[in-house]
Design a protein that fits this description.
By secondary structure, the chain is an alpha/beta fold. Helices cover 19% and strands 29% of the residues. It contains nine helices and 29 strands. The strands form six sheets. Strands 1, 2, 3, 4, 5, 6, 7 and 8 form an eight-stranded antiparallel beta sheet that branches. An eight-stranded parallel barrel has the order 17-18-20-21-22-23-28-29, surrounded by four helices. A hairpin with a 6-residue loop joins strand 26 and strand 27. Helix 3 packs parallel to helix 4 and helix 6 packs parallel to helix 7. The longest helix is centred in the middle third of the chain and has 18 residues. The N and C termini lie far apart (70 Å).
Length: 582
């Protein structure tokens, strides 16, 4: 009777369960003697130890790779499933991408992990995964099971990636490649909401706000069911005020308050190719004060420093030439935690004072270290609750509103705070609470954000949308990391998807030279990455989930000073390439 009551409760909730559980995974016990059906990093098949049969999985964890193995299977929408596996080792994780997960800190012998989940109303596939943790010993796993019915037969395939064909001040028009199979119609989604249902492969979404960004995905449906969603596309309605920024910009940080071993460069001596000059750095009087101060480099450290009057005059000259000069807040040593409303208000007041004092064009947020984090249970990047996140969003919106639509707002997060959110989200995992913590800030400011240039340096390997790890220093890393920002991605185990940004909002950051940071990339490799990202060429086998980005905003570097120290290699290599783009 107890079992019957559970079944009746599930059915009344509108969730189906299989009449008889069936394992729908391929090669679940690795008895093929291979990794057939699995996509693994650092994984291999071993004959000992095993739980049953002749083989099991061995995950060879390293300090930079936690040996993830995953498998994508067809599932039915609105259906309950149970995933399980037998594991041994330390810090072994089992879960569903974008859904539930579980883990064990230590299993000396084979121990079963199990997690249940329910597919979404339009979900037709699920990716299950297992991995260890950085620096731990190898783990072993055997006898995986995903109990539930396989995918719905007869449903159409997912449509191709939509493109934005037109936009007005209140509408965005879309077109997409047709799905295969029998198609009754298509549904256009913004997030989880259906905003249009059409019979053809075009749609126009109306009644939108002027100069607002929107991300859309499309499904196909028939009487048998609904396809998986297409990749998403992000568009913006017309009517925005131009910031006057170059279409493809060269962006650099100027050591305005310190020398850092590379020497001081006067503002007047910054070459004309630099389109955005970020003054590094405004720093707080204390970590939680919110009171930001910008102090120019003292003569004892920078003997050739110019006077305040000459510095201000040089800023005006750059602006007259069409360049943008911003104050950058934070940096590696400038920890900023807006834990209170008072700190938020002090941030707004003090940053505004710096902008007004020097007549600057905008603000760059370069929060690193422990400035941003997520409290436990803060799992929805769309509605954050952690004070340091909420107060920063409020402060940036206030500053933006104060200076108007032409105000330039940029951000320079590390990959740990953005792309790593694909696997781990700080508020929902037992790991580092900083993972993905920039995502709610980026999302809340997406209609005000001028450029997001993630630091593609000082980073460990990061999993991309191809579920492969990518390592800094080559074209592959920049392609995969930038594609994640353009296409958007599921946020770890939260069940939410971060919508991609417009291509005109996207750049990426590089060290100017080998001494400027880990992850230096030779100019030829950078141009290979740009060929792929901008033109869809020379992608090296990587498939762009977000499609080419002809409006790609540009390249950022740390720093102008280091580029000067190395005879302007960065400027000389990349400014002509960017200028040649249409």
């Amino acid at each position: 009777m107890r079992w019957l009551a559970v079944v009746l409760g599930v059915l009344l909730a509108g969730i189906t369960i299989p009449a008889q559980a069936a394992n729908i995974l391929s090669n679940p016990g690795f008895e093929s003697g291979s990794l057939s059906g699995w996509n693994c990093s650092g994984g291999s098949v071993v004959s000992t130890p095993v739980r049953s049969g002749g083989y099991a999985l061995n995950g060879a964890v390293t300090s930079s790779d936690y040996a993830q193995c995953s498998q994508t299977v067809a599932v039915q929408p609105n259906t309950a499933y149970t995933l399980s596996a037998w594991v041994q080792g330390s810090y072994v994780y089992l879960g569903v991408t974008g859904g539930s997960s579980t883990w064990t800190p230590s299993a000396a012998s084979f121990t079963q992990l199990s997690v249940s989940f329910t597919t979404g109303a339009s979900q037709t596939s699920a990716q299950i995964y297992m991995h260890g943790w950085y620096g731990q010993p190898a783990y072993q796993a055997d006898d995986f099971a995903l109990d539930g019915p396989g995918g719905t037969p007869g449903a159409p395939s997912a449509p191709g990636t939509p493109t934005v064909t037109n936009s007005t001040t209140s509408s965005i028009s879309l077109s997409w490649p047709a799905a295969t199979g029998t198609v009754t119609g298509y549904r256009v989604y913004e997030g989880a909401s259906v905003v249009q249902t059409v019979t053809g492969t075009t749609a126009t979404v109306s009644a939108l706000q002027t100069c607002s960004s929107h991300s859309y995905a499309v499904t196909a449906y028939n009487s048998a069911g609904e396809s998986a969603k297409s990749a998403a596309v992000t568009g913006r309605t017309a009517g925005c005020t131009s910031t006057g920024l170059a279409k493809h910009a060269l962006i650099g940080y100027l050591h305005a308050s310190f020398a850092n071993g590379s020497g001081y460069v006067r503002m007047a001596d910054v070459p004309e190719e630099w389109d955005i000059i970020n003054l590094a750095f405004g720093e707080p009087t204390s970590v939680t004060s919110g009171d930001i101060r910008f102090t120019r480099c003292p003569a004892g450290e920078c003997p050739n420093v110019e006077s305040d009057a000459d510095f201000a005059a040089a800023i005006k000259a750059k602006q007259a030439a069409g360049k943008k000069v911003l104050i950058s807040i934070g940096g590696a040593n400038g920890q900023v935690q807006l834990t209170t409303a008072a700190a938020r208000d002090a941030f707004v007041s003090s940053v505004s004072a710096i902008i007004d004092r020097w007549g600057l064009d905008g603000l760059d947020i370069d929060f690193e270290g422990h400035s941003l984090y997520l409290n436990a249970g803060d799992t929805d990047f769309r509605s954050p609750t952690t004070p340091v996140i909420v107060n920063l969003i409020s402060a940036l919106k206030t500053v933006k509103a104060k200076y108007g639509a032409g105000f330039v707002l940029t951000m320079a997060p590390e990959t740990f705070f953005v792309q790593v959110g694909y696997q781990f989200y700080g508020g929902s995992s037992g790991g580092d609470n900083r993972t993905g913590s920039y995502l709610p800030v980026i999302h809340a400011l997406r209609d005000s954000l001028t450029v997001l240039h993630v630091q593609d340096y000082n980073s460990g390997p990061v999993m991309g949308l191809d579920n492969q790890y990518h390592t800094m220093g080559g074209a592959d890393f920049h392609i995969a990391m930038t594609d994640m920002v353009k296409a958007g991605f599921p946020v770890a185990n939260t069940g939410q998807t971060f919508p991609g940004l417009r291509d005109d909002q996207i750049g990426f950051g590089l060290p100017a030279a080998v001494s400027a940071g880990n992850g230096y990339t030779a100019p030829a490799a950078v141009h290979t990455a740009l060929d792929c990202l901008v033109k869809g060429q020379n992608c090296g086998g990587y498939s762009l989930r977000g499609g080419p980005s002809p409006g790609f905003r540009g390249l950022m570097t740390w720093s102008i000073n280091w580029d000067h120290y190395y005879n302007w290699e960065f400027r000389n290599s990349h400014a002509p390439y960017l200028d040649a783009l249409p």
